């Protein structure tokens, strides 16, 4: 009898002191070095939103969407935050990746120059010099922008270089504009010069394309369906929380990475990102709820102008799913 009580007591004691179930460790790889667009992930981690879903989140900076997509395909990162069209190009070539949520549903692509240059509409680009990076996503879509706005290649000059060379060309006055993202390159220029930049947005001229989103390995999604749902739930809540507190969200970047930028431009960059989260069709929906129409239009544009294999048009739904997103109010 004593023996039985002792065993029972030990069992009860073990139960009483057993730790809570360990959180799932998840690696999220960003598309690039940290900037304002990334604020929701850092804010969600800082506010315990991921922890509340049983997730221990590690955020890693990236070195371009293509490299981050490769890391997700190889399962060296669990999730990626990347340019979805870049992911599509990898997927059509056999990479086992898909988007589990599309956050930027309006394109951030733009032609931008200093405000004091007074270049505010496509007509103003005539006679100017535009800095481009050959073969990047913006340069591929640039001919469509010219077609939509009635501009011709002969209306302006171009200078070409990598991303930093392109920035330097505008900063040093060798170019009047560059092709860049409204919340990224514009803030880099402002950080370097203190001067404001005006973007001529491609989206304002009928170029309807998605941009950044969360991607995962297709096999990982199948094997970890519950974890993917919890991750997308936490990330949705993190975006919603960050939208309400842009400066606090931007500050969370610096709290995690003190060399991650300047609070003013990180905040401004994030504030410029928020309007890209939704289209007219998704303005009443929670973040990431992309429409089939938006994705189909994106695929069609990429096939025509962006070098995407034409077979992508056979099944645009192969590139994304909304099945792991939280329902309204959850």
How would you sum up this structure, described in words?
The protein contains 13 helices and ten strands. It has a five-stranded mixed sheet with strand order 2-1-3-10-4, sandwiched between helices. Helix 6 links the parallel strand 6 and strand 7 (157-160). 44% of the residues are buried. The protein is α/β, with parallel strands linked by helices and 330 residues long.
Summarize the helices and strands and which ones pair or pack.
Layout: H1 2-17, E1 24-29, H2 39-46, H3 49-52, E2 55-60, H4 65-73, E3 79-83, H5 84-92, E4 97-102, E5 109-114, E6 129-132, H6 137-149, E7 157-160, H7 163-171, E8 177-181, H8 185-193, E9 197-201, E10 212-217, H9 218-223, H10 225-244, H11 246-256, H12 263-273, H13 292-305
Parallel strand pairs: 1-2, 1-3, 6-7, 6-8
Antiparallel strand pairs: 3-10, 4-10, 5-8, 5-9
């Amino acid at each position: 009898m004593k023996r039985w009580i002792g065993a029972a007591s030990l069992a009860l004691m073990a139960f009483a002191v057993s730790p809570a179930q360990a959180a799932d460790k998840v690696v999220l790889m960003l598309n690039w070095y940290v900037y304002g667009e990334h604020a929701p992930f850092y804010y969600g981690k800082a506010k315990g939103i991921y922890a509340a879903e049983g997730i221990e989140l590690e955020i890693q900076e990236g070195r371009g969407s293509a490299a981050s997509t490769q890391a997700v395909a190889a399962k060296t990162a669990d999730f990626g935050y990347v340019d979805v069209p870049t992911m599509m190009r990898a997927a059509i070539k056999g990479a086992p990746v898909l988007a589990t949520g599309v956050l930027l549903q309006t394109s951030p692509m733009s032609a931008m120059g200093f405000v004091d240059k007074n270049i505010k509409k496509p007509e103003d680009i005539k006679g100017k010099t535009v800095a481009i990076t050959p073969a990047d996503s913006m340069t591929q879509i640039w001919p469509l922008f010219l077609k939509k706005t009635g501009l011709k290649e002969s209306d302006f000059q171009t200078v070409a270089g990598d991303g930093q060379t392109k920035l330097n060309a505008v900063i040093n006055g060798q170019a009047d504009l560059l092709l860049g993202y409204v919340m990224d390159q514009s803030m880099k220029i402002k950080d370097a010069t203190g001067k404001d930049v005006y973007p001529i947005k491609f989206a304002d001229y009928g170029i309807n394309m998605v941009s950044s989103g969360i991607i995962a390995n297709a096999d990982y999604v199948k094997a970890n369906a519950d974890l993917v749902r919890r991750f997308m739930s936490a990330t949705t809540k993190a975006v919603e929380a960050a939208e309400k507190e842009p400066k606090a969200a931007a500050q969370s970047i610096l709290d995690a990475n003190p060399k991650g930028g300047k609070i003013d431009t990180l905040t401004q960059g994030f504030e410029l990102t928020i309007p890209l989260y939704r289209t007219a069709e998704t303005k009443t929906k929670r973040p990431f709820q992309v429409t089939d129409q938006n994705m189909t239009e994106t695929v069609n544009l990429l096939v025509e102008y962006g070098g995407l294999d034409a077979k992508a048009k056979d099944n645009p739904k192969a590139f994304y799913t909304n099945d792991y997103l939280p329902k309204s109010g959850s």
